[in-house]
Every structure is written in structure tokens, then in C-alpha cells.
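Inverse folding, one chain.
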């Protein structure tokens, strides 16, 4: 019975949070002002200037799809190279070797498509650089690409008689700046408040709060 109550409570909280968040994301994707515009607006405009993007550009579906494809392919190659060569890259105090090409390709495709399927032990087979610059970045941008494609589809349905469905680069920038980064900052503070830590030092052996007994009778007292 307690499990049912937890599921119901989770569903209610999810729905209550989805409504204001959905309205907020809608405003962001439509280019409307939000409570973060004064703080992030200048950063957004600077990014457009750096990457030479017109904020008012209205791509047709072919150009939008091509932009999505090019961005995803570049992301795939970059992540693949990071994983394969992590053994010679910095931020690797544990001297973790580079991934085999097939595992690196599988992992890269997984994170680029935002499925995040892991066929490895992250703590043992990934360096700090791979986790931060590789997988961490893709946790943001791959989710952003999915949101962008969703809104492109919505615009396509609403603008049946028009040619443009927005700019992929503008959509991507707005999702990352106004939605994912603020949410990650809030959730990071929650995790830190609960004692979750992260550093760039080598791994340490610590005593477990309680011993762990395996099926074969082995007792583990530290990890």
C-alpha cells in the first residue's frame, strides 16, 4: 500500500511541476521575456554574435533538420574521440585507459541520442574529463536537441501554411541557457545540501557505514 501512495504522490508532484515548467519553457522557446531574461539575455546575445546566428532567422524544415544532423554528427565525433583518447588526456588521476573503439562508439551514440545506455562502470572506466566534458555536456545538449525537435514539430503543425519553423541554433541556445542550466543549478544545490561531493582528486578508500555481505559470504568493510 505504501508503494501505491508513493507512486500516486510522485505522479501528483510531477503534474503540479509540469504545468508551470511547461508554460515557462513555452515562453522561452517563443522568445518571450521571463524572470531570467535580464540575467541571461546579454549572454544569449553574445553567443549569437560569436556563432554568427541571426536571432530572427526562420529556417524551413530541411535546413532545420540539416542543422540538427550536423550538430549531432559533430557531437558524436567529439565524444567518441574523448572516450577513445581519455588515457592521454588531462583530468585522469586514476590513469584510466581509453575505451575500445566499439564501446566508445556505442557510448557516444547512446549519449548523443539521449538514451544514456551504459555498458561499463562509469567510476572505473571513465576519467573526470570524459565524465564532465564528454557525457556531462551531452546530458545537456542531447536533451536540448530533443526539446528543439519537439518544438519544431509543434511549430510545423501550427504554421501549416508558413515555411519557417524557427532557428535550431536559437532554440538550442535558449533551452540550454534558460531551462537546463538553471534547473541543474537548483538540483546541484539540493544534492550538495544532502552531502553529495565531487572533486578532481584520485579515488580514496573509505570505511563503509555498514559492512556489506555478498552472496558467497564475503564481507566488505570498505570501498
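Residues assigned per position:
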Amino acid at each position: 500500500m505504501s508503494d501505491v501512495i508513493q507512486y500516486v504522490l510522485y505522479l501528483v508532484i510531477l503534474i503540479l511541476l509540469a504545468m508551470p515548467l511547461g508554460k515557462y519553457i513555452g515562453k522561452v522557446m517563443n522568445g518571450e521575456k521571463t524572470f531570467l531574461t535580464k540575467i541571461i539575455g546579454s549572454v544569449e546575445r553574445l553567443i549569437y554574435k560569436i556563432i554568427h546566428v541571426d536571432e530572427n532567422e526562420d529556417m524551413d524544415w530541411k535546413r532545420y533538420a540539416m542543422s540538427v544532423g550536423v550538430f549531432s554528427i559533430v557531437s558524436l565525433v567529439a565524444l567518441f574521440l574523448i572516450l577513445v583518447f581519455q588515457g592521454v588526456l588531462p583530468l585522469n588521476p586514476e590513469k584510466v585507459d581509453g575505451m575500445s573503439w566499439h564501446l566508445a562508439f556505442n557510448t557516444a551514440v547512446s549519449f548523443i541520442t539521449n538514451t544514456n545506455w551504459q555498458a561499463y562502470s562509469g567510476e572505473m572506466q571513465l576519467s573526470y574529463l570524459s565524465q564532465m566534458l564528454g557525457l556531462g555536456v551531452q546530458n545537456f545538449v542531447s536533451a536540448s536537441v530533443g526539446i528543439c525537435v519537439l518544438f519544431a514539430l509543434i511549430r510545423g503543425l501550427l504554421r501549416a501554411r508558413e515555411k519557417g519553423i524557427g532557428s535550431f541554433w536559437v532554440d538550442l541556445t535558449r533551452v540550454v541557457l534558460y531551462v537546463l542550466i538553471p534547473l541543474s543549478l537548483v538540483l546541484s544545490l539540493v544534492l550538495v545540501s544532502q552531502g553529495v561531493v565531487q572533486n578532481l582528486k584520485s579515488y580514496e578508500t573509505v570505511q563503509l557505514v555498514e559492512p556489506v555481505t555478498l552472496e558467497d559470504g564475503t564481507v566488505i568493510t570498505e570501498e
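The beta strands are 207-213, 219-222. The two ends are 35 Å apart (CA to CA).
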